[in-house]
Amino acid sequence: MKKKRFRFQWGAFLLFIFYGGLFFLLFTRMVTLQATGEVEGQELAAKAAAKYSKESVITANRGKIFDANGQVIAEDTLSYRLIAIVNKEATTNSKKPRHVVDPEKTAKILAEYIPMDEKKIYQQLTRVKDDGEKPYQVEFGGAGRGLSHEMMSKIKEENLPGILFVNDLKRYYPNGIFASHLIGFALKEENKDGTLTTKGKMGLELTYNKELTGKDGKVEYETDAFSYLLPNSEKMVTPAKNGDDIYLTLDKTIQSILEEKMTEVAKEYNPESMTAIIADPKTGKILAMSQRPTFNPDTREGDNMKWLNEAIEETIEPGSTMKTFTLASAIDTGVWDPNKWYPSGQYRVHDRVIKDYNRVGWGYITYLQGFQRSSNTAMAHLLKLIGEDVFFDYLDRFGFGKKTGIDLPNEASGKLLSNYPVERVTTTFGQGSTVTPIQLIQALTAIANDGKMMQPYVIDRIVDPSTGKTIKKHEPIVKGKPVSADTAKQVKETLASTLTAKDGSASDFILDEYEVAGKTGTAQIPLGNGRYSWGSNEFLYSFLGMAPVDDPQLIMYVSIKRPKLNGEAGSIPVSKVFNPVMLNSLKYLNINPEDVKQVDDTKIQDYTGQSAEAIQVELQNDGLQPIIVGGGGKVIDQYPKGPQKLVKGNFVFLKTAGDVVLPDFTNWSLRNVLAFKALAELELEVVGEGFVASQSVSAGTVVSDRSPIVVKLKTPAESFIKDVEAPTEGETE
Length: 733
Known about the structure:
globular, alpha+beta, Beta-lactamase, 7-stranded mixed sheet, Penicillin-binding protein 2a (Domain 2), 5-stranded antiparallel sheet, Trypsin Inhibitor V, Chain A
């Protein structure tokens, strides 16, 4: 048998070497990867996490802004953002297109719903990128954001291919024009990473942007390659932190009354500008603040408007309202003698002559008559008696020439001119030197509040909505006592006489039901270079007043610049704001008219633990209106708390155990309804403003469940008697 000869197979050998080498390299790579966990210097675990770990954002709400009674002034609300898919690749089924098929038709229809020109919409729908490629989707800027649910539904009904909507949050101002320059507004802004954040652009929205802005949260989780959540994967949730809520001192009802009258007078007289402030003189709380021209913070639309809060940021020459504080200085220094005579008409200061508004005066008259007639020369003579240095020291005590410290931005300080003798004299009657309206309000608190001057403020408290914890609380601040209580009383009485005296300059501001004290102002408006405007339509008309005189609950400043008068005195348009707003606001606050308030105040005590029925009889005998909240028996809580003095006619709520019997809410104020709601812990839904007109559940019903009860209120304009017609005679200085 012949042996087989071994033949060396070069081909097989080479294949063995080749594949063996590949196996060796692969094995080495696997060992290396397992040992180090890295590839090309990168962590494989990190790359896997980056690819399969997902993250979604939990959007934080911006903090809300409330009025003093918890009524919403600004809040985030659900809205919709319009998106158009314009790339054909989005469509996989030609019968069901998912992109904009007909840009021309789509643009024409969208232009009917959003505030954007049809041509611009078409350009956006047909836009191409720098590289010539069509974007996947486009948006429409501010015109396509903040759409309401109603608007979104209408666009959807058009069945436009490629038109989609994304849920969004919009800053919403439910009251429209409402202290707009004070509240300001906030807008969506795009961040560097493409996300959107609501940021304050003006007013409180800007000043307190940090407090109002929340912090977004996130959800982290793992998915597979098809974006399905992996089994047993952990979700990590970082909750969103909503922005802090801000509660203002503003009262929505009083602010609404003011806005309504400001709008009416602005339409009637077409002035260059108007400013008004209402405050509580006992605390310094600002209850209302407005100006004209103004704007709607939802749309930012406004004509010929300054984007600043004139009550705080702009200085004025105050005119004769400044005589209030000249009078206070004279009384407090002991030089005021109301029955002393002086020569009216003219007063010479070196080469300058100060004249009364009628140029010739009224001959020799008393200082009281001079003040009532708003005589400039009376103030000049008083300055000589007071002493110039002493007078300017009093102005400093009243806070003029320096900021009040109100919790608002960009406050102006004004300037007191005293370099020349004539400047010191003209300052006594409010020309030359400048002040701000908020300084006048602060100074008047001292007259209305027994000599104690209160710092004005608008922020009551800042609250963390997630915990309910008050982060910051503003307490009333006494800025000083520029005059004595006796001086303040005499000033109030003298100011009241400017309305009631035969030749009083403020007779237009008389109210039938309340006694008002105040001072009119007619200031020339500086044109620059020492020149001033002149003419009945060229003045700044104003009134600085308080009511009721015996115990002022409200102080108010109103100014109207360059109104178009029809032969009327300049005080008439001012009175058309002051009179109805002061009247309705006092009634809303349950301040009794003067014919009722002549009776003495009565004092309530802490009635906790006592018989509610016995206390009810006692309070009724004292002229109060007790309301038992509950089934009767022992008092477990009350409002207002005792001991304190109340004007007769006020409500006192006594809470007891047991089911609540619903009272007749007719003609109750919002404040009393809210007090009852808080003590009764009922689901009361309050609709409207002013005073109660109707209720959904009859009085006398025992309320034992949590069914909502609707209480409807009417506005003061509907509830109150017709406004007092102002007399035609007014001040002309």
